[in-house]
Structures are given as structure tokens and as C-alpha cells.
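ARCHIVE CARD
Drawer: 12
Card no.: 0347
Subject: one protein chain, sequence and derived structure
Cross-reference: see card 0346
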Amino acid sequence: MNAIQQKLLDQIKKIAVYLFIALEFTIYAYFCFRDIAYNDGCENVKYLSICLCALMQILLFKKRKMQNLLLILAMALTLIADVYLLLFETNERNNSIGIAFFVTVQLVYAIWLTINFYKSAHLSVIKKKRKIAFAVINALRIALVVLSVPIVNNIDGALSSTLAIVCFIMLLFNVACAFMQNKSSSNLLFAIGITLFALCDFSVGMSNVGTTLLNISFQARSVFNFLMWFFYLPSQVLITLSTYDKWSIIDL
């Protein structure tokens, strides 16, 4: 590909990024309004917004960043998880399958974060102490996930509850690892995105478990139900945009 073709492709991607942001913001405003005004779940519209994220990640993929194939895989698994949790009937079986896919998503993110970290490990900005801390966090992640399964099973036999707690633990560790990456616009977008993902997961937990364990009110549960997608779609949009490596040509 010559310089002119590359410049044209960059311009097309730049326009696509603008259109993607505008479309996702429109969808986001629409279903937030419907949630508040009419208590309308807008499940199909919400799922469409995640499909757009998947398409955008494919468009932004570059062969010289093969590790980003993992982010495309994570988005594909996210699409499957949302089918079970958003579009299918709500029951223990579908919840367990959907959350199991989200656990796999977090595992893929963990692998991507590890590869991304150590690809930059030769840089002087990544000091030895940060490398050690990153390794310790990964070791703790594995240990806590393994230990959480029997502990949670003793508290609640529901498989979906066990998987949900494992998923949240993995998410928290991914948030920590995301903020330990080499400083760049793309890494910062991913870190903010995964943090919003964790806030979404926390809202899901408060909505589902808070009613029984914390005795929260119906009104509080409604707020957490709203916060799920209030955090979730921005998280997926930011993770998607983190794969775009031309932020210098966009006036942020």
C-alpha cells in the first residue's frame, strides 16, 4: 500500500470513528431516555449498539497489532454473552451461560493486558518495580479466582452467583493491570473502559444480590438496573476506540 492509499484509508477510518461515536451517543441517549421515562428495556437497541462496537473493532484492526485480535475475540464473546443475558428469557441456565462467557471475556482481556504490558517492558518508562507489581497482581488474580469457587459455593449453591463473583474479581484485577500499562491514549481509553465495565458489573450485582443480602429498596434496585447500561455501553465504546491508533489526528 503506497502513501496515498494509506492516507485515504486513514481518512476513511477517521470519518468512521466520528460516525461511530455519533451513532453510539444517539443510541445511548435514546435508551437512557426510554429507561427513565417509560421503564423500557430497549433490549434490541442495546444489543445493536454492541454489534456496532464489534464491527468497528474489525474495521480498526491492523495486522501489525496482532494482539488486538484478542480484543475482537473478547467482543465476539461479549456478543454471545449478551444474547443470553439480554435477549433470551431470564432464568438460571441462561444467566449462568451468559456470565460464563463474560468470565471468558475477562480472561481474554487479562491475556491481552499481559501481552500489551510485556511488549512495552523493554521501555525505560516501565520500571522494575512495576514489572514485579504486575506479576504479583496476576498471581493474586489466579489464586483468588481458584479460591473463590469453593468459598462461594458454600455460601450460595447457584452457579450464576459463583460465576458472577469470579467475573467481578477478574474485572477488578484487569482494572488494576490496565492502569499499569505504558502511558498512551489507547491504553488510557482501555483503562477507563474496563473501569466502567467494573462499575456496570457492580451495578448488576447490587441489583441481583442486593435485594436479598442487603435488603435494598425497589427504588434503589431500579437505579442499579439503569446504571448497568449507563456504564456498560460507554465501557464497550471506549474499549473499541482504544484500538484506534491515530488519536493524534483527531482534535480531542
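Annotation on reverse: DSSP finds nine helices and no strands in the chain. The mean pLDDT is 84.
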